[in-house]
Each structure stands twice: as C-alpha cells, then as structure tokens.
Input
Amino acid sequence: MKIASLFAGIGGIDLGFQQAGFIPAWANEIDEVCAQTFRLNHIQTKLVVDDINNVKASDIPAVTVLAGGFPCQAFSIAGHKKGFADNRGSLFFQITRLLEEMKEKSELPQVVFLENVKNMYTHDNGNTYKVIKKKLEDIGYHVVSKVLNSSEYGNLPQNRERIYIIAFLDKAKFDRFRWPSPIELSESIDKLICWNTPQDRKYYYTPKMKCYTLLKENIRNKNSIYQYRRVYVRENKSSVCPTLTANMGMGGHNVPLIVDGQGSIRKLTPRECLSLQGFPPSFKIPQGLTDTKVYKQAGNSVSVPVIKRLAEEIYKVLK
Output
C-alpha cells in the first residue's frame, strides 16, 4: 500500500506510515531546504520540489493514501488565526482540487489523512473545520477527526495537541476504523536529553548575554524544561517538553531551555528536538544545515509515533 504526501516537510508523516507498513511513493514540498532533509532520509521516494499550485493529479501516481500536514500557521494560536483568509490556510483547497482531478480519472485514494493544529477545530466558531469536512464529503469521503496529544498517544514527553482528520472512501472501512487508545507515558525527557553530556558552546547562555540575569533567576530545577519567551521564562512542571515551534531557533522566542548537570543553562539541541518529535537517532540531518533551519524543521514537523499508531489502525482497516 502506497502513500503520497503533500506539504511533506522533512517526511515525518511518510516515516510514520512507513513504520506501519506503507510505502512512501511520492511527495511534494516547496521548501528546498526541507527537501534536502527529506531526500537524505527517503531515498526511494520520488520528491517533487514545487509550489502545490503547480502540481496536477496526473503528476501523482496511484496511491492508497494521500496525506498532508498542510500549513498550520493560519490557524495557530501563536499566529494571527486568519484561517482561510491567509494564503497558507487556503492551501487546503489545493488538496481538494487534486482530489477532484483524481475523481475525474477514477483514481481517488482510499484514504485521505490530514494533520493540523488543535486550534483549527475551533477556528471561526468551528466553521473552518465544517468547510473542510464538507469539501471532503462532497468528493465522496466519510470523515472522522480527533485531537490527540503526543504525550498521551505517542509515548513522547512533549505536550503537543494536534487534530487528525481521516477520510475513508469506503463506508464499510470508515465504520471499522477505531482510534488508538491512550497509552502510558514511559518515555521520559531524561532519556531524550543529554543532561550531563557537554554540548557545543553555541547552545549555552553566558553572563555576557542580555537575557542571562532573567534566565539565571528563573531556571533552577535540573529536571525541567523551560521556555524562554523574550520577556519571561516559564517552567513546564509536568516533566514534559512544551510544544516545539517553528520559530524556537529565531532570536529567543519560544526557546526550550534546560539547566544541565553542571549548572549551565543551554538550549535544547536540534537533535534533541527531533528526538522529542519521535525521529530515531538514525534520522539524518544534512551536513552544513544551520541550527535555525533544523529547529524550524523539527517544530514544523509531526510526532512520528502518533502518525505510526494512526497508520497502523488505517492499515488494519484496509487489510
């Protein structure tokens, strides 16, 4: 069973489906930097680097699943919440355009899998989600959705709530689908963060930095992850990481911080952020890629174990 992914990023959805038994056959991504990371880790997948507006259904091979983590900033609480009024939000309609083109050729995928921020569910008093659901239903799909937290459904110590929309072409398969159950969080931040291993000096804060006094006064617990938000510091006391964001490597906003075993304050490294999204140690980072780019890629990506569990349930239904 093959999957094609739109807005593929670095291939988190592809990886989760691959781990569940699917074959990532085709992908589309506009960002050449993300494409570098994708290619390095999905060498068998045909990747088309182009604006989705230029993609035609005839470019996409026949697949079982069409997936897309379409841009979420338009619906995010951290963004301006413009929804479809934002060009990034309107990109959802490019997904339905492709589906409509596929329908004309009688090549609709059996499943459509979409991921977005939790806030999309309530945006515009729920009307945004209603539009998405109605568009998919008009094409012929039966739609179900749910908000899942990575710490409850992915065994990842990250507080990350996302809406997952799954649409089945076949009503009988739709009726058989079951959401995975919550699982106990056994993976701890202690296993994913190198508390006692010195890192590159560029990740550390020093007394010469303007924000150092603020950080020193507030970051004291050696077992917590803190979030630095320019003018204040917030401790996450639930022993999980706050939601990783795309801008956590840009000038101090939303930066996840720890105080290590030596009492020094530092950022989480890009590799630690990828680990908190469930990417395995074998996942490769392109040589020469800046930390800012990797932070953005990690923050924009998905929690791979959650995707895998959902893909496993889809796999059961399709088999």
